Amino acid sequence: MITIKFFGALRIDHDIKEVNCNEGTVTQTIEWIVRKYPNIKRHHLTHSIMMLNKTPLTKINRLSVLLKDGDELVFLSPVAGG
After folding, report:
1. Of these four, 11, 22, 35, 69, which has the most CB atoms within 10 Å of its CB?
2. How far apart are CA 82 and CA 64, in angstroms?
């Protein structure tokens, strides 16, 4: 199982802290989240800061990264303000 954690506005706005899902790519995982939680829009996840096992996923090819059993994927909403 993959552990998925949410922080920032995603966590607050959607009242979701952590879920588990099966192995797959980051794109497949995002699609699974969107189907399971229809209030979360795909762009909320794709525009988030993503970390895999405490290592940031860079913009290049990050959606095609394969998640394996035991991995932890974190979505952190970007922060803006002034």
Report:
1. 11
2. 34
